[in-house]
Amino acid sequence: MKMENRKNIINIINGSYITRNIINEPSNISTPDHFVKYSKNIFKDIKNIKITVFNEKHMKKMGLNLINAVGSSSQNKPRFLIIDYNPPIKNKKTICLVGKGVTIDTGGYSMKRPKSMINMYMDKEGASISIGILYTLAKQKYKNRIICLCPLVENIVSHSSLKPNDIIKAYNGQTVEIVNTDAEGRLIMADALTYACNKYKPDFLFDFATLTGWSDRINCHSSFTFFTSNEKIANKIEEYSEIYSEKNIRIPAWLEYKKYINSRVADVKNSGYHCKNSDGLMASLFLMNFIPKKYRKNWSHFDIRMSNYNNNVNIADGYATFYSIIKNI
Fold first, then answer.
1. Is the pTM of this model over 0.90?
2. Active-site residue set
3. Which of 18, 31, 41, 215 would give a disulfide with 305, using CB separation of 3.0 to 4.6 Å?
């Protein structure tokens, strides 16, 4: 094995272990605030890093209402963590990584069954992968700017929890009908994706989320499913997946199906779609709705499954492909 390839493999392994360490923290420890503190500690000695944290009061003023609607009912209030790696290099690209950070997911009032609630402390995997990738690349003095945006919430039941049939105004100004409070990931990701585009105007946009479970249901050994309308990126995903033996299935980019996310009482709805067995596709189109059109071509969505499932190697599966795509932009 060439020395360069050996170093790359070591970087991938180290980054994936950092990711898994964050994923594996139980919810009584890894609250939104703890996730923030843990992340700050990881990046404290790395150059060209700026960390911003918005609390629930900030988000209310900013109009990040979907994040607040999901997370503000918990005593562990929501946070919006932004880690900006910006090296002093000319002609660099801007890459945004948006990661779902639900530190515990009970389903809210659309309560999960007891069996389905097991391991839901791992519903922060998307945010954990984003942090791990950014850390690994920043340590290598990566040539491009990367902004990692992590909406962090607990999805629980309380007297002020989000309810089915509530209508919430999103950050982009659209209204969202809440059909299922257990479809919370797409809500917090929607606000975060819009904010990423409006604030940072990325050349490339990637998001990571344990969103629908499609990658587990349609093929039990799939590391992830993915959605993109960019054929060049899709080919790269397939190329690196083959190298690292990280199986995946591409969600078809049937953009005409976007009409099915429309609501009769709001602009869009978060669940209850006409295409009942197409969760992965419909959730992808829901997210796409919140991305301004000029950024959609270079956006890729990764619907990941929790890393302990069918995972005999005990590292964050899918990580090597995600890392390699971004490293080689």
1. yes
2. 112, 186
3. 215
